[in-house]
User: Which sequence fits this backbone?
């Protein structure tokens, strides 16, 4: 969590600093408004973006139950006298959230209309007149002013227009957004700075709207200055003081060019890229490997076997080696503390062990302790955990967990007794112990080259039902009804508008129709027939010159569309017309005009599924 808060804060500060240097003193107030709001969202999202994945090869050995260890129990007893800093931090954070939430609700209640308040209308907004001497302010769809000042005409029109501009541009939504974030991130000073910048930009926007409304700039500035001095409060800018009024006067006269906008916006691109790279998320992926521990067996004169570990040592031990050992020892310790596992890194653990055995006893005692000590094991300083014991055989595993397992022959589930008999008959070759699709640990008897021919034959396939499901029946009916209606209309109108049926679709739905029972076929749509072939050529084929022009126009249209789209395209009416015209041409006309088949030469197999055969 602390890494996320730090990276998010870095992003937010960098974007706010860029705004301060590049945008704040410009006249693009609307752009600045959205930039400030987007900066908050970007700073929240960037730490979640994964920019790097580190793969660490490890070997994991299960450790004994730490809770039963006398060493750990002694440590736990000692820790009872220490402060629980995590609890204190979370309690402090929760109190801060409660206080900020109470403040937020209290401020919202201040905008309720009281019994003594008087309501009027100002340019379709509610004007709330209050007896108290207050500075004019606005929220959502209401403007709040002093009743006495309003009735005595002491509130200039420019002041009301200023507050109206806040409501027109819905600045209250921005304030609500940042105030809600302050409830959650009350401890982060950057959100208070962002709130200040957002409110200041709101004043720039409101000032700009008042001046564009037709009020003279000098007159407005004089009214703003006099009204602020007389009220002894920040009249128009959410309690902004006099120096901010001077800044607003400066911004009113500022005009920034479009070229400057583009150049400053482009400068934001490398900043965002740098923030993503530097503050993005870094994931660590642990890859399990086999540990290799070099040992040597020595047989003495009494025929007793002694295991001697063989260690490599460095000829020249340098301070850099000792520094490397300390780094690796801390890394091993932190990982084992966090994961409650003994861990062996593929190359780093052996390197750490080599450096440790190369040090003198004084050096070993004055540097990081051996990380495997004090973890409820029999390891000594400089020793690493032995490799895990070999996995039990299938029969041993079955004897221990017989009633907890599922059993499979190839891909078919079988009873436990049948599986045990097969394993006893053909041996354990091809037997796998792993979870099945349901997550249950299972014994799977797979067919391999060594047991092929000795396993029982697979069970006969189940007899397929001749009936189809309701879903298939409804899908077929929709498809058949659509094509039958189109073919019926084409036949009645004596045109060539028959449905174009893809070969694969016809085979799919014909298969469903063939599997229907007699009762289902009686209720189903009849199987659509394929479009009729083109009319037979007459003895003397000839089309008019106008029809030849029509054919070439259709051909060019198809060619241009196919060239741009890079895919098979069939125009419902035009494709049939083009094919019909070409089929009706005489041999001489066909020799003078390009055949339509070449359009689909790149996708011939695909085109044959939806068009007549691509042959003359």
Assistant:
């Amino acid at each position: 969590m602390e890494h996320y808060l730090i990276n998010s804060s870095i992003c937010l500060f960098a974007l706010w600093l860029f705004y301060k240097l590049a945008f704040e003193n410009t006249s693009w107030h609307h752009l600045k408004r959205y930039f400030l709001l987007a900066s908050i969202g970007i700073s929240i999202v960037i730490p979640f973006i994964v920019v790097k994945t580190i793969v660490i090869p490890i070997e994991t050995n299960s450790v004994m139950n730490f809770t039963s260890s006398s060493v750990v129990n002694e440590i736990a007893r000692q820790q009872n006298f220490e402060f629980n800093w995590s609890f204190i931090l979370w309690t402090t954070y929760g109190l801060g959230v409660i206080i900020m939430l109470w403040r937020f609700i209290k401020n919202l209640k201040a905008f309720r209309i009281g019994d003594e308040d008087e309501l009027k209308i100002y340019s379709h907004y509610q004007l709330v007149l209050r007896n108290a001497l207050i500075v004019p302010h606005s929220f959502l769809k209401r403007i709040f002013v002093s009743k006495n000042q309003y009735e005595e005409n002491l509130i200039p029109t420019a002041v009301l227009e200023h507050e109206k501009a806040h409501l027109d541009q819905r600045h209250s939504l921005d304030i609500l957004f940042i105030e809600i974030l302050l409830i959650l991130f009350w401890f982060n000073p950057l959100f208070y700075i962002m709130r200040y910048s957002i409110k200041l930009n709101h004043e720039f926007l409101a000032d700009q709207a008042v001046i564009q409304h037709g009020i003279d700039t000098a007159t407005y500035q004089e009214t703003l200055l006099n009204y602020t001095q007389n009220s002894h409060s920040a009249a128009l800018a959410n309690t902004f003081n006099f120096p901010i009024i001077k800044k607003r006067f400066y911004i009113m006269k500022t005009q920034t060019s479009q070229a400057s906008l583009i150049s400053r916006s482009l400068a934001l691109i490398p900043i965002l890229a740098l923030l993503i790279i530097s503050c993005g998320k870094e994931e660590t992926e642990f890859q399990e490997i086999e540990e290799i521990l070099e040992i040597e067996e020595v047989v003495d004169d009494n025929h007793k076997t002694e295991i001697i570990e063989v260690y490599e040592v460095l000829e020249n031990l340098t301070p850099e080696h000792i520094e490397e050992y300390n780094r690796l020892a801390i890394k091993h310790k932190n990982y084992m503390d966090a994961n409650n596992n003994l861990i062996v890194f593929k190359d780093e653990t052996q390197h750490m062990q080599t450096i440790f055995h190369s040090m003198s006893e004084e050096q070993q005692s004055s540097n990081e302790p051996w990380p495997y000590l004090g973890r409820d094991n029999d390891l000594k300083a400089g020793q690493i955990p032995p490799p895990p014991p070999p996995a039990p055989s299938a029969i041993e595993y079955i004897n221990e967990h017989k009633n907890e397992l599922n059993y499979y022959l190839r891909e078919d589930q079988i009873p436990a007794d049948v599986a045990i008999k097969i394993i006893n008959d053909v041996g354990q070759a091809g037997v796998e112990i792993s979870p099945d699709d349901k997550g249950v640990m299972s014994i799977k008897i797979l067919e391999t080259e060594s047991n092929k021919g000795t396993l029982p034959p697979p069970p006969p396939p189940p007899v397929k039902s001749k009936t189809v499901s309701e879903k298939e029946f409804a899908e077929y009916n929709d498809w058949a009804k659509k094509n039958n209606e189109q073919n019926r209309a084409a036949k009645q109108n004596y045109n060539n508008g028959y449905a174009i049926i893809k070969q694969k679709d016809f085979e799919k739905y014909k298969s469903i129709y063939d599997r229907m029972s007699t009762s289902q076929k009686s209720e189903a749509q009849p199987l659509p027939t394929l479009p009729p072939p083109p009319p037979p050529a007459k003895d003397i084929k000839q089309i008019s010159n106008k029809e030849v022009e029509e054919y070439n126009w259709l051909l060019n249209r198809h060619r241009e569309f196919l060239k741009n789209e890079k895919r098979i395209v069939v125009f419902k009416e035009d494709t049939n017309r083009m094919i019909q015209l070409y089929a009706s041409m005489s041999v001489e006309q066909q020799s003078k005009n390009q055949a339509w088949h070449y359009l689909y030469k790149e996708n011939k197999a695909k085109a044959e599924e939806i068009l007549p055969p691509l042959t003359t």
